[in-house]
Write a structure and sequence with these properties.
9 strands, single chain, alpha+beta, 34% helix, binds calcium ion, 5 helices, 232 residues
Length: 232
């Protein structure tokens, strides 16, 4: 009799837990509310989606497994466009720098009207005077350098300013390093000169140069005082 009662109870419990077609959210008799069920599924027949069918495409783009993409692979299709953008940005930066330079020069010419423009260079003076080192320091303070004519046109432009002042102006050249070799302020031997006849003669150790009102150059001692003309 006891055995019969136990078997009957098991049959009732099993019947209560039999799955039905009822909605999943319905709490079935004998189930615990808020309990969880773990469902483990095997891979679908034919493999996971994108596993096998996408492999050739991936290998086409990136090469065989275990190898990094190379510059010639189809995965680098964006590289030429990227390089093109970089080049374009560099060109824009150059144009911007040029524009800034022109604006800066224009502002300086407006601030100091006693200037002459020749090519992309501007010679100007604020009327100050000084020896070679003071003149260079003054020009640097204004954002320029001491005037150095590089060709006949520049010499003519500088000559105009010197003639207006009817004086002598110091040039941004000297032969302090090597006697007889006149260099610009960057240490480069000058390629253009307009020395007066018999100059430079280094009389009494003359290592600097001045422009006379006739536009000709003379070497002179660097401690003399001249009209300061800067170039920008
Ligand atoms: Ca000399
Ligand atoms: Ca001389």
């Amino acid at each position: 009799m006891v055995v019969h009662l136990i078997l009957s109870s098991l049959v009732l419990v099993a019947a209560a837990q039999k799955p039905t077609s009822s909605p999943a959210h319905r709490i079935l008799p004998g189930w615990f509310p808020n309990a969880c069920t773990l469902v483990i599924c095997g891979p679908p027949e034919g493999g996971l989606k994108g596993e096998k069918q996408d492999l050739p495409r991936i290998q086409e783009l990136w090469g065989p497994p275990g190898t990094p993409p190379n510059p010639g692979s189809k995965g680098d299709n964006n590289l030429p466009e990227l390089e093109s953008l970089k080049t374009e940005m560099k060109n824009l930066q150059v144009q911007l720098d040029t524009l800034k330079s022109i604006i800066t020069k224009t502002q300086k010419v407006l601030l100091v009207p006693n200037g002459v423009m020749v090519g992309e260079k501007i010679f100007k003076t604020d009327g100050s005077r000084g020896d070679f080192d003071a003149a260079q320091a003054n020009c640097e303070h204004m954002g320029g350098t001491l005037a150095v004519p590089r060709n006949a046109a520049e010499n003519s432009a500088l000559h105009q300013i010197v003639a207006w002042h009817n004086g002598r102006a110091v040039l941004g050249i000297n032969d302090r390093a090597t006697e007889g070799k006149f260099e610009d302020l960057n240490g480069q031997v000058i390629e253009y000169s307009n020395w007066a006849p018999g100059e430079p003669n280094n009389v009494g150790n003359e290592d600097c140069a001045e422009m006379h009102p006739d536009g000709k150059w003379h070497d002179r001692g660097c401690a003399l005082e001249w009209l300061v003309i800067c170039e920008f």
